[in-house]
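Notes, p. 3: input format for complexes.
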Amino acid sequence: MANLKLSHIYKVYENGHKAVNDFSIDIADREFIVFVGPSGCGKSTTLRMIAGLETITAGDLFIGDTLVNDMEPKDRDIAMVFQSYALYPHMTVYENMAFGLRNRKMPEAEIKERVLKAAKILDIEEYLDRKPKAMSGGQRQRVALGRALVRDPKVFLLDEPLSNLDAKLRATMRTEITALHKSLKTTFIYVTHDQVEAMTMGTRIVVMKLGYVQQIDTPMNLYNEPYNKFVAGFIGTPQMNFFDVKLKREGDVVRVTFMNGDSVTIPYENVSKIHPSYLDGETVVSFGIRPEHIMLEKEGDGLKFIVTNVEHLGNETIVYGKLGDHLGEFTMKDEGNSIIVKVIDRDDIAVDDVVYAMPNPAKVHFFDAKTEVTLMNKIPPYDTLAAAVNGDKMVILGTEVALPETYKKAIAGAKELELNVPLEAIVPGNDFTLPVRKIEKVDDQRLAYLENGDSYLFALVGEDVKEGGSYGFSLLNEKISVRANGEELLKAVEDEVALTGTFSKTEVKEKGDRVLHFFYNIGDYTVETAPEHGYKINSIDGDDCYKNTYRYQISRGKVRLVSEAEAGLTGTVTDYLDYGNIRFAKVTAAGQEFLIRVEPGFKADKVRLAFDSQDISVYSTRIDMKIC
Ligand code: ADP
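Output follows (628 residues plus adenosine-5'-diphosphate):
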């Protein structure tokens, strides 16, 4: 039994191919985790890194509490089952299962006990004397599982174990492996390109694409709340329908207008988390609706289409069709006008029928046309507030508050501001009060729908805030992006300082031994780092590491102002940013400009800054990657 932790894992192959990027997950003991994605997305590479068959380029892998990056595969207490069963043809089933244990010099009596127990679990007791070639694919796969089982590992890794089997046997083995997982009470990590396998077996699924994790979630959450268009299209058959549309708020409804001019409406309440800027009737967004979430009507105000094909699959019927073109005629050639609908118990629909599709408003999905990320995040990323500038004040939500000095400088006389406020910038306080219309639990957070005219302002709130009550809050001005007429005038202050520098080593003799010391160099400042970080950087970039540049990131709160006498990065103060509640100095040092936090009243032309090596994250600028 074991839990696993993958923290910022990367894999760059010798040829420079970056197969896995920044993979992080906490896997609880006894979970059944599935890695799924199209061929080449990095599933096997990740699994092989966990097994120890592939080195980890950067990041940490823990099994239990032990860092195992450099541990030999045989010491990891992991068993791996491959797609090719990798059985020894000249050995019997018994010998195949006993082989690994014999190599470990386990007493024969114990080997026998383990093999018989595993054979019983897998129902292959009667084949123990057979050679693999006298067995079916399914039986061989059981032997391969048995070989892993006898080792009684902490973690089972399975790499497409069923892909050599026919469809019927695959379905049976799926059930068997799920049952095996339940009875063994062990952690399973399973790789497949088959989304049905993933959905039916995993307690949680990691969806990957081109080396990047797209979403980690339960099967139902992936199906109901896909984070992006890729996940939405990958999970579910037939695939989700996608259409380019424009959205327009019309009172209590949102009108969804398709490219051919046809439209349907959905209640605003179903899509209230979509940022208002997407509801302007101008911005093209991608609308997603699953075939099983569309109702078909012979007439009505749904989306009109012509049926091009009908597949009867017993109680289910799959209807394929084409939307009309902008002249209202049906066209077969344009992209993006096909539709698939799955209906139950209907035999009244035939090819060439003209029918109407009504999307279930509770099951609609919308994605940004460029980024393809959902517009219906469980927690919206930011709110937008209007601010009217009035001298040294601004009026937000009908309340007058001070206009921060920094805003005043940046807005150059603009009177109407748009504040993009990330939810973490809305904190309990007494500047504003809004009624709490609804509270929604999202994982372990509480999302409040605050009533703001005819739409909502979202905030994350504590237990004390109740539905039907009111919420008093203030804004953290420095975390807000300030815009006017669609143009960003002032960026939000980020939480980290990023500085570019180099890396070096010195070699000294200590008590007759050669000892290496490693340093991060930023301008005139040299920070000695722990040897393991030095070796890590060197192992990734080779001796080029002493020529490359690195990005050093430090949480702003960890940057200290020190006296001239101390070692540090020397900088020139060029400006101050006064946000009212918080103040920053704009500093130029080592040819770079950044902000440091300073006390009210602080004034200086020059500063010296210091930070500790353990507070610095190092990123490769050559291949965008967090090294340590
Ligand atoms: P998956 O298991 O999702 O099909 P893999 O993890 O096998 O994908 O491969 C991920 C990517 O890494 C692919 O583009 C593949 O071509 C590449 N790759 C795999 N092994 C190597 C290797 N030894 N050297 C270079 N590139 C590799």
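The mean pLDDT is 93.
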